[in-house]
């Protein structure tokens, strides 16, 4: 469950380390984001001389969340951290070339095939 002002780790090699969520796409009254949702956030911490700079506004997809997520088959999945992958502007393609850590298969189910292809393993 990702809400406004949530700090998320970045799981790709764009250079950003932390992103703070300030909008969840999908409606004006949307309060929470889950696995596979797209958010708009600002980069709070970044490595120097990389693709993404500090204070840059980016779109990202949620690939891991701490809160239990109930799947259609009745099982639950949860991760150790909240993490996102930064996307190109208004597309479903990832900005980076590598993704670290596991990723939920809900990302692939929501149509982000390019992001899911970069994952170490889909859980």
Protein described:
The protein has 123 residues and is mostly beta strands. The chain has one domain (7-117): Ribosomal protein L14/L23 (Ribosomal Protein L14, Beta Barrel). It has helices at 106-109, 113-117, and strands at 7-10, 16-24, 38-46, 57-64, 69-70, 76-77, 83-87. The strands form 2 sheets. A 5-stranded mixed beta barrel has the order 1-2-3-4-7. A hairpin with a 5-residue loop joins β5 and β6 (76-77). The longest helix is centred in the last third of the chain and has 5 residues, at 113-117. It starts with 6 loop residues before the first strand and ends in a 6-residue tail after the last helix.
Write a concise keyword list for the protein shown above:
7 strands; 2 helices; two-stranded antiparallel sheet; 5-stranded mixed barrel; 123 residues; Ribosomal Protein L14; globular; mainly beta
Please write out the topology.
Elements lengths: L6 E4 L5 E9 L13 E9 L10 E8 L4 E2 L5 E2 L5 E5 L18 H4 L3 H5 L6
Parallel strand pairs: 1-7
Antiparallel strand pairs: 1-2, 2-3, 3-4, 4-7, 5-6
The gist of it:
The chain has 123 residues and is mainly β. It has helices at residues 106-109, 113-117; strands at residues 7-10, 16-24, 38-46, 57-64, 69-70, 76-77, 83-87.
Q: Give unreliable regions as ranges.
A: none
Kindly provide the name of the CATH class. Answer: Mainly Beta
Overall pLDDT score: 95
Structural class: mainly beta
What can be said about the biggest beta sheet? Answer: 5 strands, mixed, barrel
CATH topology type: Ribosomal Protein L14
Question: Quick one: overall form?
Answer: globular
Q: What's the structural domain tally?
A: 1
* Beta-strand content estimate: 25-35%
Q: Give the distance, in angstroms, between the N- and C-terminal Cα atoms.
A: 18 Å
Tally of DSSP helical segments: 2
Number of strands: 7
- Helical amount: under 10%
CATH superfamily: Ribosomal protein L14/L23
């Amino acid at each position: 469950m990702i809400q406004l002002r949530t700090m998320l780790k970045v799981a790709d090699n764009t250079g950003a380390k932390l992103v703070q969520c300030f909008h969840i796409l999908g409606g004006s009254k949307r309060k929470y984001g889950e696995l596979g949702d797209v958010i708009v956030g600002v980069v709070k911490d970044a490595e120097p001389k990389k693709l993404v700079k500090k204070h840059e506004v980016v779109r990202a997809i949620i690939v891991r969340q701490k809160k239990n997520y109930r799947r259609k088959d009745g099982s639950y999945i949860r991760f150790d951290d909240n993490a996102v992958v930064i996307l190109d502007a208004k597309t479903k393609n990832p900005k980076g070339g590598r993704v670290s850590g596991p990723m939920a298969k809900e990302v692939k189910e929501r149509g982000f095939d390019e992001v899911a292809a970069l994952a170490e393993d889909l859980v």
